[in-house]
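Help needed: design a sequence for this.
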């Protein structure tokens, strides 16, 4: 096991996307800049999707145009089709996430295509991204269950991951989009995936819908995966999954990893005020546990400012 872990901040994309109240571009950039200042070196800044379906991402090009690229941060985007890839490349994005769902029903809701149709389209998207010189992170959604279909057979996850390995993905993201996964499932699937895709780096994208997000972080670490998508304050949730709730919180995940002896380079005390800022703007509490304690000064004094 390494003595470091990587947190990839997805709040500005996955965290913001389900919010009905439009978050002004200036505020999005304020949060992104604050996250960079807090030590997050990889930030998913936006997604290039149709604003009819995800209105919150209608300002994707403006966000990208105004990013401060002098802080040593890798800013990434997400696309679901070829047009999104074209937009991302034109906006100056160099790292793109392209995803498919292991659930046919969710894939139809998310991308308006069946899984079979999506595999052919994915090959074209991947080739286009490579032609544009983009680094590609390939994601598998609904790996541990689907609210519509229930159990998702691991074979369906492995088939997609094997396709990504065949194409030459730079990373593979394993997503518990519905938060239905258990630690035992997580460890078993990661073991099977490692055999299937070799040494391609893997990233865990965990949601806390069933309250098992951080338990699944521990299970992932025990299985040898130490890269995680997180969102400030636990924001987020897929707008096409009924009852979906937020990502594992950046603050809570970093504190847990620090306790496991893994360094993240993230300053929890600088992330937490950003979560409070979003709580105040949205007029509702976020799902994270730690951010309010950090801001109030009531958190465990053993927490390190940056680890």
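Sure. Designed sequence:
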């Amino acid at each position: 096991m390494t003595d470091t872990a990587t947190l990839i901040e997805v709040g500005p994309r996955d965290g913001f996307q389900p919010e009905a109240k439009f978050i002004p571009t200036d505020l999005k950039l304020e949060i992104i800049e604050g996250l960079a200042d807090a030590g997050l070196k990889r930030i998913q800044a936006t997604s290039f999707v149709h604003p009819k379906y995800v209105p919150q991402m209608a300002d994707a090009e403006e966000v990208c145009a105004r990013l401060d690229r002098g802080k040593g941060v890798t800013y990434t985007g997400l696309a679901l089709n070829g047009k999104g890839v074209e937009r991302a490349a034109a906006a100056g994005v160099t790292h793109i996430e392209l995803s498919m769902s292991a659930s046919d029903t969710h894939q139809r809701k998310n991308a308006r295509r069946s899984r079979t149709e999506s595999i052919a389209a994915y090959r074209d998207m991947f080739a286009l991204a490579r032609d544009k010189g983009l680094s590609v992170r390939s994601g598998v959604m609904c790996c541990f269950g689907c609210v519509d279909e229930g159990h998702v057979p691991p074979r369906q996850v492995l088939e997609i991951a094997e396709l990504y390995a065949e194409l030459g993905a730079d990373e593979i993201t394993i997503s518990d989009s519905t938060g239905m996964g258990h630690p035992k499932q997580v460890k078993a699937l990661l073991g099977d995936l490692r055999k299937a895709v070799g040494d391609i780096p893997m990233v865990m994208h965990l949601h806390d819908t069933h309250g098992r997000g951080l338990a699944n972080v521990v299970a992932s670490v025990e299985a040898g995966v130490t890269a995680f998508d997180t969102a400030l304050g636990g924001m987020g949730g897929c707008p096409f999954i009924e009852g979906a709730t937020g990502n594992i919180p950046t603050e809570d995940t970093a504190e847990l990893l620090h306790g496991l002896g893994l360094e993240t380079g993230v300053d929890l005390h600088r992330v937490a005020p950003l979560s409070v800022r979003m709580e105040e703007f949205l007029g509702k509490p976020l799902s994270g546990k730690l951010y309010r304690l950090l801001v109030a000064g009531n958190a465990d004094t053993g927490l390190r400012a940056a680890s």
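The mean pLDDT is 92.
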